[in-house]
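ok so for the tutorial part 2 we go from a plain amino acid sequence to predicted structure tokens. step 1 is just haveing the sequence, like this:
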Amino acid sequence: KAKPGDSFGELALMYNTPRAATCTAVGDVSVFGVDRVTFRRILLGNAQRKRKLYESFLEKVKLLESMTSWERAKVADALESVDFDANTTVIKQGDDGDNFFIVIKGEAQVFLEKDGVAVP
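step 2 — the prediction. this is what the tokens look like for a chain of 120 residues:
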């Protein structure tokens, strides 16, 4: 069931595909609607602003200094912001390496475990 704050129908607008589901009002319901052109314009505008922000940030990352602006743009397009609460383990030594992280704000402590002791 869709409750206040839930949304539906965005996939068809984003990917220009037929509706993937049917939504029927269970009782009286009021919804906000956005047409395809407006929705896509907003998404593209947001994506362009995000890309510029991420690209300017990536230009300052030492590991990525040797990349071309096109390569950094591709990395910027792939980035997803993730938030972690204080004292949360982001990655753990020995786990599979399937993600790469760049600190956007705040601080994170990196430890190397040697003989069962965590060394910063």
